[in-house]
Inverse folding.
């Protein structure tokens, strides 16, 4: 067992034991609380849930919430799905990329901001939609994104 | 001072409902947070003394946005709300369990007979008759059986699951308990996508209330939050995910009703399918079946989105046309330009154009067009839509979301995207379209699940290629 895996990860795992889909819930919570899932975290998850590290890595690589790189301090997710396309999501995305100088899926070199794709936030009747630091935004404009 | 009913629903909140609620409270109103009526263009819409106001931006100037009496609201009054009847205008956590208790006392055979008589079909996408799955779960001997609720709602243009879970979570609990009673399952799991945190909180709170009311003594409910994967809406992928694994789809048979979660008989249903069951028991299966057209019985929670003036949720009997939904209910396109296409049924649904828009929204009529109702989402595009780009996106989305287990989907989607990318500059577009058509044939016939199997539907319809043999 690696000694550098934070106790926090083990605590999260232990809270999830016995719940349905527990390894995924634990990993989601690790990513949410620690910002990203590291190798040592995967080893702890494997240990608690009696999985191989390869299995845990397989899970992590499958689900987009289980991030292995931290997001920027400002986390902008732009909906790329059809209903938002129909009201200008592509144009909004292009404008955001230009303003930030990074492409969708990238984090600024100084870690200040990341731009990510999301496929539907369920706000489709009032698009284009976005989520900024976890806060949903409807009828998003470039101005509102950076307000 | 009047009680102010203010929605606490993700869209209304995104448009300022929390601030409106705070401002009304500061002026001395008692504020009750509610579900949404689903009329997106009016959000945040508040109700006071049975009069609706919206969209509210300034609580001191409500008269300027007075919409009129709630029960005569245009866009709401003519709906036939069987599922959404309690959503909006009331505290979702105040629950009277007397009807539920009566339903749960009915013999399982009775409940099954009503569900069969109702003609209810799955609202998650496939439209499979519900009663067949219920009977299979009931008749398959096992030490444990499950009800699994599919609340992954990944389709663009859909939000019905979210609206009911945020606005009337007890409706889903009712559906689950009745299904448990009828099939002999004593445990239910809800698989909810992580993009819906408010739905998660609302549902958990309702489960806690139900527990305190003693409604969950013979039936356990657990909520699982997904981790970001469209494919996990596919039922076998969802079950793998619930077992804590990568969401790779399973080969069928066995169907989940025989061997599902942890190998046990499992009733997998979309949220809205289960939420229709209380209405079926209260009005009777036959009365439910009298609504709609032919084998498309009952009401559907149509969700109108994209380039449309008045988007939202409209619960209506099956049978109105796509164009009626867009023009009569939605007020036409938001841009004011002519309709270019409507994509019906999510990212795996067809782009309907021209005369196809006059097809009635029924399972049968859409099947004749190589299309489907899906989860009831209708996404409107105006005439500026770029169909080559939409076809490219359909392949790209499949490539992005494919679980990777079968080759036609994993590789086909990538090759398809590449082909469409070169189409515009192609010197032999006819030959290239023929190759795309062949690729679609292979994906339709050889994919393990409908991710690869149905991606050809938006591709072919966008590019006006003849539809395949499988649809
Ligand atoms: C790629 C893919 C994604 C799906 N996503 C969903 C979904 O998000 N919600 C849903 O209820 N059904 C979804 N389905 C359909 C399910 O596989 C399944 O048919 C449904 O949950 C059964 O419930 P029903 O009988 O109530 O429709 C999806 C199917 C496929 C192929
Ligand atoms: S398509 Fe963008 S929120 Fe649904």
């Amino acid at each position: 067992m690696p000694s550098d895996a934070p106790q926090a990860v083990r605590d999260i795992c232990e809270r999830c034991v016995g719940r349905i889909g527990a390894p995924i819930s634990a990993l989601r919570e690790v990513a949410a609380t620690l910002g990203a899932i590291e190798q040592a975290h995967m080893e702890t998850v494997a240990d608690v849930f009696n999985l191989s590290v390869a299995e845990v890595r397989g899970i992590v690589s499958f689900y987009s919430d289980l991030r292995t790189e931290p997001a920027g301090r400002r986390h902008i997710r732009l909906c790329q799905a059809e209903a938002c396309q129909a009201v200008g999501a592509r144009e909004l995305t292009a404008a955001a990329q230009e303003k930030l100088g990074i492409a969708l899926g990238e984090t600024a070199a100084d870690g200040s901001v990341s731009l990510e794709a999301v496929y539907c936030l369920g706000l489709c009747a009032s698009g284009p939609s976005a989520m900024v630091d976890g806060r949903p935004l409807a009828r998003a404009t470039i101005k509102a994104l950076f307000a | 001072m009047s009680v102010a009913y203010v929605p606490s629903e993700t869209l209304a909140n995104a448009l300022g409902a929390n601030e409106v609620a705070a401002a009304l409270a500061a002026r001395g109103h008692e504020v009750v947070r509610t579900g949404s009526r689903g009329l997106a263009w009016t959000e945040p819409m508040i109700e006071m003394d049975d009069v609706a106001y919206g969209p509210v931006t300034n609580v001191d100037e409500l008269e300027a946005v007075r919409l009129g009496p709630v029960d005569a609201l245009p866009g709401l009054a003519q709906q036939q709300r069987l599922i959404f009847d309690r959503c909006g205008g009331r505290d979702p956590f105040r629950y009277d369990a007397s009807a539920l208790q009566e339903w749960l006392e009915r013999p399982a055979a009775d409940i099954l007979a009503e569900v069969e008589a109702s003609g209810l079909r799955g609202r998650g996408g496939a439209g499979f008759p519900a009663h067949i799955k219920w009977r299979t779960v009931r008749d398959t001997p096992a030490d444990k059986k499950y009800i699994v609720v599919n609340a992954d709602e990944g389709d663009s243009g859909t939000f019905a699951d979210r609206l009911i879970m945020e606005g009337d979570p007890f409706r889903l609990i009712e559906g689950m308990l009745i299904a448990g009673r009828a099939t002999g399952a004593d445990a239910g799991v809800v698989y909810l996508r992580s993009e819906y945190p408010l739905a998660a909180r609302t549902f958990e709170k309702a489960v806690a209330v139900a527990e305190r009311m003693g409604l969950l003594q013979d039936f356990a409910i657990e909520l699982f939050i997904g981790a970001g994967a469209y494919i996990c809406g596919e039922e076998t992928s969802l079950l793998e995910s619930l077992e804590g694994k990568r969401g790779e789809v399973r080969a069928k048979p066995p169907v989940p009703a025989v061997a599902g979660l942890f190998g046990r008989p499992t009733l997998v249903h979309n949220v809205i399918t289960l939420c229709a069951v209380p209405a079926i028991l209260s009005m009777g299966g036959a009365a439910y079946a009298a609504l709609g057209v032919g084998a498309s019985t009952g009401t559907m929670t149509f969700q109108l989105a994209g380039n449309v003036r008045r988007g939202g949720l409209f619960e209506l009997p099956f049978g109105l046309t796509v164009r009626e939904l867009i023009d009569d209910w939605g007020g036409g396109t938001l841009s004011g330009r002519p309709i270019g296409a409507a994509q019906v049924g999510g990212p795996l649904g067809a782009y309907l154009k021209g005369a196809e828009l006059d097809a009635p929204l029924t399972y049968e009529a859409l099947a004749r067009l190589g299309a489907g109702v899906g989860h009831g989402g209708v996404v409107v595009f105006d005439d500026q839509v770029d169909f080559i780009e939409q076809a490219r996106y359909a392949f790209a989305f499949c490539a992005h979301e494919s679980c990777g287990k079968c080759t036609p989907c994993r590789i086909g989607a990538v090759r398809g995207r590449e082909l469409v990318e070169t189409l515009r500059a192609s010197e032999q577009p006819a030959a290239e379209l023929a190759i795309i058509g062949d690729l679609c044939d292979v994906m339709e016939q050889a994919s393990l699940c409908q991710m690869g199997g149905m991606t050809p539907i938006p591709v072919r319809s966008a590019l006006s290629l003849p539809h395949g043999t499988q649809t």
